[in-house]
Structure formats: C-alpha cells, structure tokens
Amino acid sequence: MQRAFCIALKIKFFWKKMLIIYIIELKENYVNYSEINVKTLGEEVGLLLS
C-alpha cells in the first residue's frame, strides 16, 4: 500500500515538473503563438490538471 502511494506521488511530481517546463517553453515562445494556439494549449493544460 505504502509503495503504491510513493509511486503515485512520484507520478504527480513528474507531471508538475513537466507542466512547469511546458509553461516556461510557452513563455519563451509566446511571441510566436497566436491567441488561438495559446487558447488550445490552455485547454490542454486544463485537461492535464483535471
């Protein structure tokens, strides 16, 4: 039981790390994105978090 919990925590941490990297890249490339692309990416992030 405890081991499964540790694995779940690692997965959660991994997703948070990936999300942070994703947001940093998005900020760096923000100039290249149109509003439509930003909206689509926002929806993708929303799906990941839900």
Strand content: under 5%
Extract low-pLDDT stretches: none
Main beta sheet, described?
none
Helical element count? 2
Strand-and-helix sequence, N→C? HH
Structural class: mainly alpha
Walkthrough of the structure:
The protein has helices spanning 2-28, 35-49. It contains 2 helices and no strands. The protein starts with a helix and ends with a helix. The chain is 84% helix and 0% strand. With 50 residues, the protein is mainly α. It has one domain (2-49). The radius of gyration is 14 Å and the shape is elongated.
Outline the secondary-structure elements.
Elements: H1 2-28, H2 35-49
What are the main properties of this structure?
single chain, 50 residues, mainly alpha, 2 helices, elongated
Brief summary of the model shown:
The chain is an all-alpha fold. Helix content is 84%, strand content 0%.
